Amino acid sequence: KNQVEQSPQSLIILEGKNCTLQCNYTVSPFSNLRWYKQDTGRGPVSLTIMTFSENTKSNGRYTATLDADTKQSSLHITASQLSDSASYICVVSYNTNAGKSTFGDGTTLTVKP
Amino acid sequence: KAGVTQTPRYLIKTRGQQVTLSCSPISGHRSVSWYQQTPGQGLQFLFEYFSETQRNKGNFPGRFSGRQFSNSRSEMNVSTLELGDSALYLCASSKDINSGNTIYFGEGSWLTVV
Description:
The complex is a heterodimer. By secondary structure, chain A is mostly beta strands.
């Protein structure tokens, strides 16, 4: 069964600190992995998308890594800001078809001043 | 350019009623997908449309249906509403059906069933 597990479920950090969110998946065959940021009450916004051959991708202060062998991905946030407070969702696609995706339940990040 | 537009933004319905939600994709995007998001279940895939044809469907009962028009705009319908249908319904669009494309989400329609 295709599954995506994210950890931790929630995280509180102080402004300016770094943090790392984890995503483990059992999706097969693997097509791509995406990280989304979702502010409360808003639609998700794409941060990164990685294919099998990519092991690192950055988007500003966000850096995603992918280890296709261990089926793990991480999202590292550098020098956190209050605006980083959101839910971060990992999505793994097992087919080139967009509908063939498995969503993680997300990690809720709270950045405090 | 304009993003994905969903209407209505908020609505309240009574059990047993039906509801229709609308989604206008980004101009030039031909693939539209729908998702249900609840606090306990996270994001759940409902269905995906491309060129007016449903290409994929999630594990939802037949009360959930959708369609896509020739201009790529899409609607989803939920009949015989149940309390458990209360959720944020998100629409997303992408250029085509390839999952390698970036998917852009709308702000969602908040449905409350009472």
